[in-house]
Amino acid sequence: MESQEEKPIIYTMENKPIVTCAGDQGLFTSLYTPLAQQLPREPMEWRRTYGRAPKMIHLEANFVQFKEELLPKEGNKALLTFPFLHIYWTDCCDTEAYKGSVKEDMMRWQNSLRAHGSADWVIVVVETNDAKKKNKTNILPRSSIVDKIRNDFCNKQNDRCVVLSDPLKDSSRSQESWSSFLLKLRTLLLMSFTKNLGRFEDDMRTLREKRTQPGWSFCEYFMVQEELAFVFEMLQQFEDALVQYDELDALFTQYVLNFGAGDGANWLGSFCAPVRSWSGLLLRRPIDMEKRDGIQHGEASLLDLRSYLFSRQCTLLIFLQRPWEVTQRALELLHNCVQELHLLEVSVLEGALDCWVFLSCLEVLHRIEGCCDQAQLAANCSHTVGLWAYATDKLKSLGELCGLVSDKGPTSEDLNRTVDLLAGLGDERPETDSSPSPYKKLKEALSSVEAFERHYLVSANVCSLKGDPERAEAFLQEALKSYVSEGWSLPVTHTRKQIAECQKLLGRTEDYLQTSALLAGDVNLSSEERKHFCQEILTFASKSTDKSQKVILSMGAFAQLTRLQFHPATASVHSGADLQVELSLQSLMPVSVCVQQLAASIHFSLEHGGTHGRSKGTQKQTNIGTVDFSQGNLSACPLSSSAAGPSLELDEIQDRSPSDNSLNSTGMVCKNTHLVMRRHDSSSSPDTPNCVSPPTVALDDGAHMLKVQDITLEPGSNSVVFTAPSGDPGTYTLRQLCATVGQVQFVLPHIYPLVQYEVYSQEPLLTVEPLSEPLLAGLPQMVKFTLLTGHYTVKKGDALQLSNTETMPIMPSTSCTASIRNTASLLSIQSSEKVTSISLPPTPPYHTLEFQLEVLCIIPSGSDRPANERLTNGEVRHRPRSYSHPDTPMTMSIDCPWSIYSTLLALTFYIPFKTKHSLLSAGNRKYIQVCVQNVSDVNFQLVDVKLTEKQHASLELHSLNTKAQQLVCSKQSVFCLWEVRWKADLPSCLQCVFSANFSPLNQDISAFKPFHYHFQLERVTILPAAGEQHCRSGALCGLEVCITRLTEPGENEMGEESKADSDGLKTTKLMYEVADSSSNWAVCGKSSGMVSMPMLANATHKVQIEVMPLFAGHLPFPKIKVLKYLPHTAAPAIQPDPDSCVENDSLSLLDKTLDDQGDTASIRSRGSVHSVGSGEQQQRGLAMPRLEPFSPGQVFNHSHARQVLVLPATDDHIMEVNAT
């Protein structure tokens, strides 16, 4: 019974996920056709685990009737027989029927699912109008039946119950219900599929991780992972299915390699059994169940496993429309199987592997021909030629083994061997009965000598011997491409020899010479064979023919360029200079070859680094002068390098401003775009010795060439020296290399990596730099003039014209000399008031002329310095970090004979001193102090220190400096002091000049230079004498408040606020208040009061208040506040009259007695309108006096921004001195 239960596992290409259907089978049958057709129409997004990319898949299903036997049993890992979803169908709308039978049937169905752990189910309730018409008495609303089902079975999964309304009708309601049902069914099916597939993959990984444990079986694991491949194939995810087989292939290969290294697994023993059958690959079945059963039961041989695995890979590749990959994999499989049998030490009958390889090659070719048309086969014959060549070689081996190529024919021993080989082929398979199968071809070829020759003549080798060399060459060229791409060196050599024979028979001289050159340098051949092919080339080259019939061949087969060296190594010379190029060539020929001419073509470019503000990156790089050509770059590239193109040769390019040479932009440029962007064929590069058919190349015969005549290239390393042209400035790039041997030219079409040298034409350059840093202003300093002549020839009589400036005169010397390449020459210097002329000695181009001059930068006086103490001529220079003190850049204008424009050169001089001044006071005595700080690194001495005043002759500056000579060390300061004496009044402004002579320490008197410092003293004042009126901090002083009425009052004020005094003059009352919010003053006594102001224009009233300043200095006047005083008879609200203005005129602080004023300390309110009466009177409603502020603009504070000088309090100290 158990064996019968396992039989439903049938692996076919039509497998679909299983969905069981329970309940009303008649109802399901009526809906089966539209359900099966419409389910896969809409794709679903399948999101997989472990971060794999989502895919869109079309879900199909195999709907079967529910049986408990279909539910998975514990331990069963077959996904193809696993029911992914269970559906219960019902159209019940009768409560009695539901309670009587439907509910019980549903319970049995769910109990069966629960018992087997199946949680993926759905109940479909179909609503039809026919069921309603049959029984209208017991019918309930559809929602009531659905609610009962959901309450009974879908307690927490309401989405597991779906209502389908009239699915067979064409109404919009029915279509909407049907679409919703299909979407729900796809979603549930995909969820179940993802969950169960993820669980299966986890189990499979767990099994794979146990492969190091004893008892692990590869065949068992093979079945599990192939099950996963079947599932992917079922979902039409052929790429994922192919990955599973590739992983199995790689795993088995690794175990075989480990076995060969001595680390064998126990389960490999079953694959080490002797090979009994060699029937070849079987690709005409989707699944070879016979071999699969052998793998499942551990009875398969190595060839059976490899054959089955490749058949499955072949089927998936055909589905993926990649038939040419099948041929590539087939060749790898056939070669690898031979090696694996050798590693596993499997016993194989002699010739059996040849039979297996021959049958497999023809089977693969037959399979490819069955899925491709003739046009595709003709266009892709390069993919199949390798299999044809391999099958031909194996057929030839079988013919030699069975005596079918012997002149005497096969012997009895050969016949017995043939019978044994045919017996191992087994019976012919049913799939091959109706066509000429590989089995029939091999059996027929081994049956007789004539049959063998007939089949063998199909191959290219025999065709070339039987009179069809053109067809043979085409086959051999395709085979050669395959061998070159895969790196088979010996088959390449053997095939080239055969191609050379065909080309010689066809009279293709150029192709034959190219193939002969490749063979002459092939180390796989013997020395005699190499010399033979080399002599073929030399014989043709020595023929006296017309020059137009020269044959151009690839140099990659003749010689290899290994190294290139420049002398000088910088590869950059000036125009007309000598430059040599040394080439190192590796001759591949077995004998010495006389070369009539070895030439290299040069591409000339007018690009110059730095011209028009552009700077090329090559000039910034360090050119070592030597270029080594690796085998991957030139002719000696490996066999597998044909697919790899040249690497990018990038260069940096910069755009600089022509004015200040600042960087504007930078970028990258590819120098070998013509090589990188060209089309790369599947064949090898024509520069390689393994190229199949090198194209015709031509030598660029340009104006610039490197040539050497009549040299001999010995086998091995050779060195050739060229003299490079360097006449025109620009960039010279080596493009091609050509070796001429008689009528044959060997051409290297591209020299890679890029090799170039530069010839520059330099403009004359004059620079001025100090001999020592820093340059100190005020002292004679030596500067060096350096002239790089460039392309200019300095002739006799050429002179430099230096414009003299007052601030930096040139100090000529009669012994000034110039040096040219260590040769001294006397300079002639003539100086006038405006120009200094320096006659230059004759100097050839591209030489350096150097001479020195002594200059002096005069230190400007202090009055000319800007506020930041930096003396410039309109240009601020950055001072060096090591020298932080003021500098003065001096610009020198020089007229040169090679240019019509003047050259401006700047020298930065640093002032050695930093000077500052201060005014000191001692009572009524004044002193001026000048501080001279030495900010340089040199020690100076100061003499004749003076201070003068330029405007006031009566002013006397008495020096208090005792020393006539002062030493000023580096980074130290010297203070000088003068007392100011005056006869009359002391001027408020003094114009002073500090002067001194300075020189470096230990210099004679003639070395002293003057130094001047101009400064101005302002606000020179004397404090008041004792007893004079002034304010002191902490002492009482008088504040005089002057209040002035500017205009006459208005009518309202006249009637309501006026009051006649004893003299009959009408007055109004104002209140004033001292409100000092800055806490500078303390009011002593009364701070507020009332005054009576006459009602006349310009009427003035003065009040004195006693205040005390709290701080010394210039303090602002105290703030005075003025308010209106309204009597009790006035109206409660009085509109201010804009014409009635009161001026709080002036505030004076006097040290005198104050007039008595009425005390207004009882006035508490200082707001807008305030009452002066008591609280009881206000409660009784009596009119009381009020205070009202003036409107904005009515009061002008005349002393608002004024200040008063407050002297500090006298500080009397008692000093106790004890003398013993």
UniProtKB/TrEMBL annotation:
Predominant location: Golgi
Key words, A-Z: Golgi apparatus, Transport
Keyword Transport: yes
The name this protein goes by in its record: Trafficking protein particle complex subunit 10
Pfam families: Ig_TRAPPC10 (PF23604), TRAPPC10 (PF12584), TRAPPC10_1st (PF23036)
Source species taxonomy: Eukaryota, Metazoa, Chordata, Craniata, Vertebrata
Compositionally biased region (Low complexity): 1162-1175
Cellular localization per UniProt: Golgi apparatus
Residue ranges of domain TRAPPC10/Trs130 C-terminal in the record: 988-1207
Domain TRAPPC10/Trs130 N-terminal intervals: 14-326
Domain of life (superkingdom): Eukaryota
Domain TRAPPC10 Ig-like: residue ranges: 771-909
Single GO BP term: intra-Golgi vesicle-mediated transport
Any one GO cellular component localisation term in the record: cytosol
Renumbered residue ranges of the record's region Disordered: 1158-1181
